[in-house]
Write a structure and sequence with these properties.
With 442 residues, the chain is mainly alpha-helical. It has two domains: 200 residues, no CATH class; 212 residues, no CATH class. Helices cover 83% and strands 0% of the residues. The protein has 17 helices and no strands. The two termini are 25 Å apart.
């Protein structure tokens, strides 16, 4: 506990970390509001309607993750590199236009896939709206990066919060008005991000970038190293793509092998369990600078394993209360969600362990192995889901659980190999500390 307490106090006492915590709190609050928007949809829509809404959310998330090409990081780099405020604004405007263009291009490509997949035929209208909205969601996230680049951290948190609150308010308004899944999807994926973009632009006006901080300089250095080593860059990009498929491919796969009732039940369970993923990712993000700056990588492995086991145990303790509350807030569909929700929570508890330990692979520059792990997770999820296809909504839940078990085993193999004296990934890297910088996409 003393080591954990020292880390927490060290984090709190750093001005930049306090600013980052402000953004993190805004992110969590916005995500909770987005979850409540999905719960409103689950309570008001018929089963078939919520199935379509759930597919729309999955396609929207997939579009945003595929279009995440590091533009938020580039915003920070460009702002830190420029000395003239006018030049900073010109660079960020150009980058914003590129962000919108790439988002629209990715959305267009995914729209073609939506048209071609027979399994999405009955969800096509909602899926196309959600895909187009993904382009606007990308720009909203870019505005968060711009405000962070301008050191307006409260503004960045406000944009995240506005996105979540906007989704909740607009989806609730559509429900009260008696509108269906098409209107709710448009509210969630199009109009709420547009409102967040407007707020972000308003807050960015008049703001000026401050001098580059130590953490920003380290981030720039890390990006320069990645550019100098294309294999590293490709491995990190591949990890991000595989992660997007892992997080969203299960719902889309279920549309091909299941019916609307099964899709609706699984989507409802997934939205509740996704809270665990959010907190896991937040903890991983907060821990990243400490891991990358660790002088003794092998000792850091032990600390990360302890932290991962604590996170996993915490989720196991919370499993029954979360299922109990989730069943009741989902309304009529709640009783059918119990089993897939419990399985997903177990899977994401194991994922908490994995997300803690996997940070060490960035420290020792073994990103290709990490990409292989996440790629294997995707293949495992698909294979197990197809094997259990007769189990309906339980099939993708089993797939997610199997994928997380495989990932936990693979992330421990090098550790056990080092302990047995067969590898020297961690002890050898202890001689070359990595700069303290955040790894995106966690």
């Amino acid at each position: 506990m003393s080591d954990a307490r020292a880390r927490i106090l060290g984090l709190i006492n750093r001005p930049r970390a306090r600013a980052g915590s402000t953004v993190l709190l805004g992110t969590i609050a916005g995500a909770v509001a987005s979850l409540l928007a999905a719960i409103v949809a689950a309570r008001y829509l018929p089963v078939a309607g919520f199935a379509a809404f759930g597919v729309g959310m999955a396609v929207n998330s997939l579009t945003m993750q595929f279009a995440d090409l590091g533009f938020s990081t580039l915003a920070m780099v460009h702002a830190a590199d420029a000395t003239d405020p006018a030049e900073t604004r010109r660079r960020l405007i150009r980058l914003g236009l590129r962000r919108m263009a790439t988002g629209l291009a990715i959305a267009a490509g995914i729209s073609v896939v939506v048209f071609l997949l027979p399994s999405l035929r009955e969800y096509r209208e909602v899926a196309l709206i959600a895909t187009g909205g993904g382009a606007f969601g990308c720009v909203a996230m870019f505005m968060v990066g711009v405000l962070q680049a301008l050191h307006n951290f409260r503004g960045a948190a406000a944009v995240q919060l506005a996105l979540g609150i906007g989704r909740l308010a607009l989806v609730a308004a559509a429900a009260v008005a008696g509108l269906g899944e098409v209107a709710m999807t448009a509210a969630y994926s199009v109009f709420a991000p547009l409102a967040a973009i407007a707020i972000g632009i308003g807050m960015a006006r008049g703001a000026e970038a401050g001098p580059a901080t130590e953490e920003e300089s380290a981030e720039i250095q890390l990006r320069e190293e990645e550019a100098a080593d294309p294999r590293r860059h490709r491995a990190i990009a591949a990890t991000a793509v595989f992660s997007a498929l892992l997080l969203n491919g299960d719902v889309l796969l279920l549309t091909a092998i299941g019916n609307a009732d099964e899709v609706a039940i699984y989507a409802a369970a997934w939205r509740i369990a996704a809270g665990a993923l959010l907190l896991n990712a937040a903890l991983s993000s907060v821990s990243t600078p400490f891991v990358l700056a660790a002088a003794d990588a092998w000792a850091e492995v032990g600390r990360l394993m302890k932290m991962g086991l604590a996170v996993m145990a915490g989720w196991f303790v919370c499993l029954v209360p979360i299922v109990f509350v989730g069943v009741r807030i989902l309304g009529d569909i709640g009783e059918e969600v119990i089993t897939p929700l419990a399985i997903l929570l177990v899977a994401f508890a194991i994922d908490g362990f994995f997300l803690c330990v996997q940070l060490i692979f960035y420290r020792v520059r073994r990103e290709r192995y990490l990409a292989m792990i996440v790629g294997t997770e995707v293949l495992t999820m698909v294979a197990v889901t197809l094997v259990f296809r007769s189990q309906g909504e339980l099939a993708p839940a089993y797939g997610q659980l199997a994928a997380r078990v495989v990932a936990a085993a693979m992330v421990m193999l090098p550790v056990l190999g080092e302990r047995a004296g067969r590898l020297r990934w961690f002890r050898a890297a202890s001689l070359e500390p990595e700069p303290a910088a955040g790894i995106k996409g966690q």
